[in-house]
Amino acid sequence: MKNYVIHDLPDYFKQYKKSIKNPKKFWDKIADENFVWYQRWNKVVKFDMEEAKIEWFKGAKLNITKNCLDRHLAERGDKTAIIWESNDPNEEAQYISYRELHERVCKMANVLTELGVKKGDRVCIYLPMIPELAVTMLACAKMGAVHSVIFAGFSASAVTSRVNDCEAKMIITSDGSYRGNKAIDLKGIIDEAVEKTPSVEKVLVVKRTNTEVKMKEGRDVWLDDYYPKASADFVTKIMDAEDPLFILYTSGSTGKPKGMLHTTAGYMVYTGYTFKNVFNYKENDIYWCTADIGWITGHSYILYGPLTNGATTVIFEGVPTYPEPDRFWAVIEKHKVTQFYTAPTAIRSLAKESSSWVEKHDLSSLRVIGSVGEPINDEAWHWYNDHVGKKKCPIVDTWWQTETGGIMISPLPFVTPTKPTYATLPLPGIQPVLMDEKRNEITGNQVDGNLCIRFPWPGIARTIWGDHQRYKETYFTAFPGKYFTGDGALRDETGYYRITGRVDDVIIVSGHNLGTAPIEDSINLHPAVAESAIVGFPHDIKGNALYGFVILKETGESRDKDHLRKEINMLISDTIGPIAKLDKIQFVSGLPKTRSGKIMRRILRKIAEGDFSNFGDTSTLLNPEIVDEIKDGRIN
Ligand code: PRX
């Protein structure tokens, strides 16, 4: 790997300048010198920000799995690619070498082919964090099928809507999953989900919990009936640079989830490049990202980024608190992890436990520790720095999104001086700009505004599956000519960025993006509910929690309120998943609305936070008297 590594701060500034002055030359060299291609591109980048049409490395032919697997076989065939750590600490870890992973992926690709999957078909994967999750994703990539991993905490109806949106031909699931001391009936959830998914021809079932499941004749098949006889030879499909690699759903502030489409070449180059630099990756490192592969963090930084670099990546099936609250620290010690990448929510919840849980483990193998998914508050940053990093491991506070494919703003370890709560500086190739409400660029330092990106980078999602218009409207119209992130940010006196949070109706709860509209839609399904509005409020562990204001129909007025609250949360759990449940539900007789009928969420947010000091301009409210009623009934 050449021309890949940033050595020190002057080198960062030099590379950054180069990347902005001549992005084509910059990415051309990185792509050329660090990846294997069947055929070179004839154009590095072509884009039209008005139409939201972006292409990288057009004309190139490649397969990402050649880069993740095949090319490592000669030099690193026996090196461990994946360390799999079970939910149960007494179950033996698996060490899967590059050679074995390659073989498993080829066999799996043959199984999928035998079951009718072809290049371009969509395959939904609903699996726990077991090796087959990585193997099936890579098998799809190898054969040119488009994977769409659905986080295995989503409910049946959330699965149905995603499967239908991408018209998946197959779903891959398991009999069950383990999470701490719970066993979850994944196959049962899929059985319910596929009742309404006409595109699904086959459900492929992996054995994990050995629980009894129903198998529908002609549709459901066990992996064990195919895999042992499958050939280990598979002819890799040659893909175009812009062929779809995967679809990953993320919440929008309105309507149904957005299927973000990532394509092959740009995503590979960007995740490979950022992995190497942001984690200061070196050949014998043991890298561990605790995210679920069902989120973008897992796609980019458990699987693709590490594997294109020939790294050893840990896949952990369990939860941080099982069997005890030191599981993360025990795993770091056991596998001598060098890079550890997790979310502020996990840090906050573990910081609540006695620090003796951390101190009793030898964490001296750690070199770099990272954070992702939501702003990390000062207290959590310092706890992480003091107790986990022992003040010697730089914290990389990495800001990015499902849509960006890879890390965008982050310190580089041993290069960028860190500053608590700041994601610091943009990576080479990334041009952040702050914009005001009037669509003017805010220049200078010590300013804040809407965070946009000026120029495309290779990892950017290319569209929303089946709805390019929505892609264009969501990301490219608010600030014409720029990609709008939906986040607010401030830039300090030295040019460091700090992400201040969402500026739209997406709320990040425990690091999960939740749109208010889908939650409101699901509450409104309750027969006793007339209308609802959701806002976020600060929460010690989760970052934000959800507060619901609910107007009941007359029929609901006489019902037991606690019972109704339970029913509403059950409904949310069934339609979206338990992660979207409300912490507080207040029944109200009306919602503050403007004359045009828009709910003034700003006021609800303030009430939920318990801040009654200044509601701002309420003169446009149709029903100002409602504010006092809601304030008085606030739930503490
Ligand atoms: O608001 C930002 C927040 O998470 C959002 C993206 O969520 P998602 O697409 O689920 O991807 C999460 C993992 C990349 C962003 O718009 N976010 C992510 N990282 C940070 C962050 N907020 C502050 N600091 C971060 N480091």
From TrEMBL:
Record's keyword terms, sorted: Acetylation, ATP-binding, Ligase, Nucleotide-binding
Every AMP-dependent synthetase/ligase domain range: 70-463
Q: Where does the source fall among the domains of life?
A: Bacteria
Residue ranges of domain AMP-binding enzyme C-terminal in the record? 519-598
Q: Which residue numbers delimit the Acetyl-coenzyme A synthetase N-terminal domain? A: 12-68
Q: Name one GO molecular function term.
A: ATP binding
Instruction: State the NCBIfam families in the record.
Output: Ac_CoA_lig_AcsA, PRK00174.1
Record family assignment: Belongs to the ATP-dependent AMP-binding enzyme family.
Q: What is this protein called?
A: Acetate--CoA ligase
Organism placement in taxonomy: Bacteria, Pseudomonadati, Bacteroidota, Flavobacteriia, Flavobacteriales
